[in-house]
Structures are given as C-alpha cells and as structure tokens.
Design a protein that fits this description.
The chain is mainly beta and 169 residues long. The protein has helices at residues 110-121, 160-168, and strands spanning 3-5, 16-24, 28-30, 33-37, 41-50, 54-68, 75-89, 103-104, 107-109. The chain has one domain (3-134). Strands 2, 3, 4, 5, 6 and 7 form a 6-stranded antiparallel β-sheet that branches. A 3-stranded antiparallel β-sheet has the order 1-9-8.
C-alpha cells in the first residue's frame, strides 16, 4: 500500500504542497475479465491544500490498462488521465460527505484512491474500437475479421409446445 503521511506537513490556511509519488495499481477484474495496468507502478502528482475548513487532496496520473475487448475478446489497451479530488473537513462530525474514506490515522491511502478514481472514469464497456462488431453468436468467429451471416435456423423443437400455446392466445 502506498500511503502519504500527513503528520510531516505543517501547512497554514491557503498553503499547498505538491509531491511526486509512485502508486502501485493491481490488476482490475471487470465483467469477469482481468485488466492489468502497465506498468503496475505509476508516477503521480499529489497536491495537498490547506483550507480554513479542512484539507483538499488532488491526485493526477495517467493509466494504461491492457486486457480483452468486451465484445470480441482481442487484446486492447485503454488509456485514462485521472484527475481526482477529495476533501477532509477539519471537524466533520457525523457527516460522511465531509470525510474522505482514504484517510486513516493521518495516512492517505493513495493506491485505493487511484484504483477507485480509475474505475469511476473507465468507459461502460472496454472495446478495441467504438464500432467493434463482436463475436458471431452462432459460430463464435470474430465479426471484425470475417463479417458473415448464417441462414435462419429453424426453431428449436423443444419450444413447439409454447408455439402452440401462442397460437391459441
């Protein structure tokens, strides 16, 4: 776990500090498929600003994920520039909105924060290209490489009882 120790900072209101940190990202499992960051250790910029009411944390990094396309299963890469911001109030009370989940005992968990920010920024489907045709549902061949169609198959005889029922309704 990469953590940043806040105890060493002595910031007054309005001051900020910027630091270059290394973040370790583990592979993500999305939709049953694994997407690995390359490299797994990434440089990032952490900015901490002391406000009158709390602390603002900002994290910037570039991530390149490698894994299968979710339509055709060919290996693909996704690049995302992450810009994340968190806030920790000086006196949050019981309000979870004023507290960051990544800060415990003056240790800011950068790995968990970067992972969560990446997952929130990823597209709904990771595709090799926007117009990916996917795999043929009949034979399983890649429709991007070999576009084709199959003749209409007859209905499965196991559904015949339901077809008769539909005819009566």
């Amino acid at each position: 776990m990469t953590a940043f120790n806040l105890r060493r900072l002595r910031l007054r209101s309005g001051e900020h500090v910027r630091d270059e940190v290394e973040i370790e990202l583990e592979p993500l499992v999305l939709g049953g498929e694994e997407y690995a960051p390359r490299p797994s250790t990434l440089p990032a910029t952490l900015t901490i600003t002391q406000a009158t009411s709390g602390i603002v944390f900002e994290l910037e990094l570039a991530v390149h994920l490698h894994g299968p396309c979710q339509r055709c299963l060919t290996q693909t890469a996704v690049s995302e520039d992450i810009h994340a911001r968190e806030y920790q109030a000086a006196n949050p009370g019981g309000d979870d909105e004023l507290r960051t989940p990544y800060l415990r005992d003056d240790q800011l968990d950068l790995d968990a924060w970067a992972r969560d920010a990446l997952v929130l920024q990823l597209p709904d489907k990771i595709l090799c290209r926007p117009d990916c045709a996917g795999l043929c549902p009949v034979c399983g061949r890649d429709l991007n490489v070999e576009p084709h169609t199959h003749e209409e198959l007859g209905t499965d005889p196991r559904w015949s009882a339901l077809d008769e029922l539909r005819g009566r309704l």
